[in-house]
Amino acid sequence: MEDLTSLPHEVRGVESATDELSDDALLRQFADGDAVAARLLTDRLGPRSFSVALRMLGNRAEAEDVTQEAMMRLWQMAPNWVSGQAKVSTWLYRVTLNLCVDMQRKKKPDRLADVPEPEDNEPSVAERLQDAARKDALQAALSQLPERQRQAVVLRHIEELPNPEIAGIMGVSTEAVESLTARGKRALTAILAGRQDELGYDNG
Fold first, then answer.
1. pTM (2 decimals)?
2. Phi and psi dihedrals of 178, rounded to 5?
3. Domain range 123-204, its CATH number among 1.10.10.10, 1.10.730.10, 1.10.287.180, 3.40.50.10490
4. Which architecture characterizes domain 1-114 according to CATH?
5. Phi, psi (deg, nearest 5) at residue 90
6. Is 71 in contact with 52 (CB distance < 8 Å)?
7. pLDDT tens digit string along 54-95?
8. Are 20 and 66 in contact (CB under 8 A)?
9. Which residue has the higher pLDDT, 138 or 131?
10. What is the residue extent of each domain of the chain?
11. 172 burial level (CB within 10 Å; 0-12, 13-18, 19+)
12. Which residues are CB-neighbours of 27 under 8 A, at least 6 positions away?
């Protein structure tokens, strides 16, 4: 991340003030031509979009493509944004999920997806392998869930969004979110348990 202390005082002041603004305010500033607002909003929302796309698709390159497309659509929509109708993050999550669905429909089911490799620093080889195995198991289990259950589980238990926001993103009622999440969790647990039995893991 850029060291703000290396920037001129006036620029630091603009960055600090802009950083305190809401997503809504930053989007409106971007629509008025503020490049700093665009960069801050990208830094704030881009990782959230990528996290959801990666869990939905299981492929890092595809998740990056979806994130870039989702952010492009956000910039294109900015001049027409109406404050107070929805959260910017809710809109972006919805677009991200729709792009994931489109991508999944265009490709035929093939291999298990790529999982991000562990960072090459502190963990030992054994710890990294174990961590990679857990990620593989989770991604493989998620890929077996029905699409709507997978969306609900990813948003609720990985992104940790509240049910009312998930309902807005998915276009369903809060009760439907609760049902989808509960069924998805049960199915995920059963899949993971079966995988553990198959691989000889200790459930204790």
1. 0.69
2. -60, -40
3. 1.10.10.10
4. Orthogonal Bundle (1.10)
5. -60, -45
6. no
7. 999 999 999 999 999 999 999 999 999 888 778 999 999 999
8. no
9. 138
10. 1-114, 123-204
11. middle
12. 37, 41, 74, 78, 81, 88
Which tokens sit at 183? Answer: 């069924």
Could you tell me where the DSSP H helices lie in the chain? Answer: 9-19, 23-31, 35-57, 60-77, 88-106, 125-144, 147-153, 163-170, 174-199
Collapsing DSSP states into helix, strand and coil, what is residue 204? coil
Half-sphere exposure of 128 (CA within 13 A, CB side): 11
Q: Residue 153 corresponds to which tokens in the numbers above?
A: 């589980």
Angle between helix axes 23-31 and 88-106 (nearest 10 degrees) is 80
On whether the CB atoms of residues 45 and 23 are closer than 8 A, the answer is: yes
Q: Which two tokens stand for residue 176?
A: 């439907």
pLDDT at residue number 128: 66
d(CA 71, CA 113) in angstroms, rounded, equals 23
